[in-house]
Amino acid sequence: MIIIMAPHGEAMVNSYSKPMNTKAPRRLSTEIIQRTKSDISFEMSKEKIEIEEVLPPIPEVEDAKCECCGMTEECTHDYIDRVRAKFFGKWICGLCTEAVKEEVEKNGGKKDEALSAHMSACVRFNKYGRAYPVLYQAEAMREMLKKTRMEGRGIRAKSTSPKVVMKKGGMVRSSSCIPAITKDMNDLALQN
Question: What is the distance between the alpha carbons of residues 106 and 64, in angstroms, rounded to a whole number?
Answer without folding.
Answer: 28
